[in-house]
Specification:
Blueprint lengths: L1 H11 L4 H9 L5 E12 L2 E13 L7 E12 L5 E7 L1 E5 L4 E11 L4 E10 L4 E11 L4 E9 L6 E3 L3 E3 L6
Antiparallel strand pairs: 1-2, 2-3, 3-4, 3-5, 4-6, 5-6, 6-7, 7-8, 8-9, 9-10, 9-11
């Protein structure tokens, strides 16, 4: 009886190498966090705070870090005052290129301006925020529409290509 069980056991066990290979090739995250923050400091001063409902980090997959379910990036000046805030639905960090791609209802604000777009790229190395997508900027006096945008992270100096909109030409 034991011999019959052993034979049945051997016959019923098979290895499907394709299934095993598929399982081995799955790139699982190294870390997954919920309601998390990442802080960037320079010379001991807080420069950037990234908050997200979900952060997933990979070691051997691009992009390396994926922010999902809402993201907020807060940029600070040297006195720890908030300069600008970037919000989006999702974002991806590519550590090789040293950029963050924010997508989905992207909003960039400071005390004066508010920008809306579907995509913004933050290049940490060059210290610029840019896109080739459509943008809408609301100031206290103007509504500016364009396609293509480039700015410093605090959103005080910016360029727009293919510009249109309602402008206040009154110098008062």
């Amino acid at each position: 009886m034991l011999r019959l069980f052993f034979i049945l056991f051997l016959v019923s066990c098979t290895n499907n190498t394709d299934l095993v290979q598929d399982f081995v090739n799955i790139k699982l995250p190294a870390e997954e966090m919920t309601d998390a923050e990442i802080l960037h400091t320079k010379d001991g001063k807080l420069k950037v705070k990234i908050s997200a409902n979900k952060i997933t980090r990979y070691k051997e997959k691009e992009p390396n870090i994926i922010f999902s379910d809402s993201l907020m990036v807060t940029f600070y000046d040297d006195s720890s005052n908030i300069e600008s805030i970037l919000k989006s639905e999702k974002a991806f960090i590519d550590n090789k290129k040293n950029i963050m791609l924010a997508t989905g209802n992207v909003i960039l604000t400071n005390n004066i301006n508010m920008l809306n777009s579907e995509e913004l790229i933050w290049d940490r190395q060059k210290n610029i925020i840019y896109t080739e997508e459509k943008v809408k900027i609301q100031t206290k006096k103007e509504l500016i529409l364009g396609e293509g945008f480039k700015s410093n992270p605090n959103f005080t100096e910016y360029e727009i290509t293919k510009i249109s909109g309602i402008f206040n030409l009154n110098n008062k």
